[in-house]
Amino acid sequence: MKLEKFIHIISIALVITCNACKKSWLDAKPNKALVVPTSVADFQALLDNSSTMNTQLPTLSMVGDGDYYVSDATYNSLSSPQEKGAYLWVPTADFYGGQPSIDWIVAYTRILQDNVVLDGTTSLTTNANNQAAYNNVKGSALFYRCLDFFDLSQQYCKPYDPSSASNDLGLPLRTSSNVNLTVLRSSLKATYDQITNDLLQAVPLLPVSPLYPTRPSKPAAFGLLARVYLSQENYSKALLYADSCLQLKNDLMNFNGLTPKKLAPFARFNKEVIFHAGLANYASAFPIKAQIVDSSLYRSYSSNDLRLTFYFVNNGDGKGHMAFQGSYFGVAIPPFGGIATDEMYLTRAECYARTGNTAAAMNDLNTLLQNRYQTGTFSNLTAANGDAALMLILAERRKELCFRNLRWSDLRRLNKDTRFQVTLTRTVSGQIYTLPPNSPKYVLPLDPIETTSGGLQQNLR
To answer: Which fold has domain 3-256+338-452?
Structure first.
C-alpha cells in the first residue's frame, strides 16, 4: 500500500470511527491491517503531508476572540453547533449539540501520526548517510505534536497560573502510538512541561533553514517556545526564545514594495513566514459576505498605515462592511496560523518592555512599523519608560496579528492586568452576549463524547 493511501486512511478512519460509533476519539482504534512506514524516508513523507500536518489547526478560539462578528442572517445559517457555541460563548450543555469537537479530533489525529513517527524511528538504524534526515524527522514530529498540544491547551485548559498549575486540569498527553493505553487528563503544569521539554529536544535536531516552509525548523521551534512562554507570562524566557528565533531569521516585508491584490495580497511562503500553517475554515470567518471586521479594530489604523489596504477589503454585503484579507497563507482562506517574524518582533519588543529595556523594545517596534507605513509618513515612536512602551506595543500587536488565532491567548493573559482588560460583546437577534475578563468561559468545554465514553473530566465553566 502506498504511503499516501496510508496517510489518508488513518486520518479518515479515525474521524469516521468517532462520528459513527460515538466513541471517545482517544479510544478510536485504527485498522491493524494498515501498512506502517518503516524507513526515514517513509516517516518524512508522512510528515510532509501538508494537507494533514499544516492545515486545520484548532481555531474555535478565534471564532470567539472578537476580531470579527457576523450578521443575524449569517449566524442563523451556520450549520455547526460548536461554531455557534464558540461565537456566543454559550454554556457547556448547549455548546456541541451532540457533535464531537472537530478541533479536538483533527489535532489528536495529527498527534497520533506524530507518535507513529516517534515510536517508529526508535527502531531505525542511523549512520552518517541518514543521520541528518533522521534528526529532521524526529525533531519535526516533536514540533508538530507540541504545536497541537499548545493550541489545544489554549482552548481547553485554564490560563497558566504557576500557583495552581500543578492542580489545574491539562490535556490527555498521548505520547505513544499505542491507542490501547488509557490516558486521562494531566495537570496543566505537566502539559506545559511536556511542550517545552519536547521543543527543547527538537531544537538541536532541526535545521536552521528547512527545505520547505511547511517543514519545522530551528527558528520555528524557538518561535513556538517564545509563544508558549508568553502565554505563561514568563517574559524573560519568552524574550530569550524570541531573540533566538530572530537571530536566525529576521526578514520583514516592506509593504511599500508590494502590489495589493484583492483577497490574496501576500505571497504564499513570503519572507516573513518561519513556519507555514493554516487555521480551520469556519464559515463565520469567510471574508466575503460573512465576516465583518470589528469596527474598533478597523478604526485603530492610521490613514497612512498600509495595513488598511493589505489587511482589509469590502466584504461585498452592500453595507460597507470590511473583511480581513491579509492571510499569510497566500490565499484569502484559510487564515494563517503559522509562525512569522512580525510576531517575533512584537513578542521580543513586549518582553523587552516588561523586563526594563525600553530602548530595545522601541527599536523592535519601530523596525516593524517602518515597514508598514507609507514611505515618508512614519516617525519613530518614543516612550519614556517600559510601561509607556508596553502600551504602544500591545496596541500594535492587536493590529498586526489579528486573525491569526493569537488574540484569545493574549486576552487570557492580559485580562489579568486591569490596565488591559477587555469585555467582548456580541448581539444576535437583539440579545446581547458578553464575555467578561477572566471568565471561566475562556476555557472551552470538552465535547460530551470525551467526557462520557472517554472518561475525561469536564471543564468547569
So the answer is: 1.25.40
